[in-house]
Amino acid sequence: MAVAAISITVVAFGLPVLSNVAQSFRTAGDNRSIAGLIAEAKMRAAAGFTHARVYANLSAGTYRLEVWNKSGNSGAGCWQTDGDTNACTVAASPVVKLSPNVSFGYGTIGAAPANTEPSLAQAPLCYTGYAGQSTNTTSVANTACIEFNSRGVPSDPAPGGSAGASGGVPDATGALYVTDGSAVYGATVLASGEIQSWYSRNSSTPNWQQH
Fold this sequence. Notes:
Blueprint: H1 2-47, E1 52-57, E2 62-69, E3 78-81, E4 96-97, E5 103-104, E6 126-127, E7 139-140, E8 143-148, E9 154-155, E10 174-179, E11 183-189, E12 195-201, E13 209-210
Antiparallel strand pairs: 1-2, 1-8, 2-3, 2-4, 5-10, 6-7, 8-9, 10-11, 11-12, 12-13
């Protein structure tokens, strides 16, 4: 009975630690998945001589890879979810859902990783069209998009936005951050197209580390 009591006590102390470790693995895994999808979007845009993006639904906690289908929407073009049989993305198009207890956000952290963005923020809003398209004026609320043009260069999806649009100064940096409340992970894209992954404890004084 004494051995059993000691075993139960040890297990009781160990379970929270194991739970925290498992949660950390899930959150880090989500970040790796997002960073990998960003890299794939960059390659797909260049390979298909089109635009591609990672589309994050911030409120639903989902994300997906979309490629601009030039022949979709009766030739007007539209975004098509990768792997979807529909020519244009629809409500039923497949998405990837974040792990349990993980959401898009950056907790109490107030500063972006060094040499990434001027200030901490999710990527710009997604638009119904592609960056640089003259008719691209309709944004989608509660979203964030990291988009690449046909040269594999990150492009600001806002109307008129493009890489280096402001007198040659790149305006296409972007990031997607996820958190589980204890830690914050981020996948950032520099104007050069370099993709980086970051980690910090959820703190007002972050200690960002690449991982």
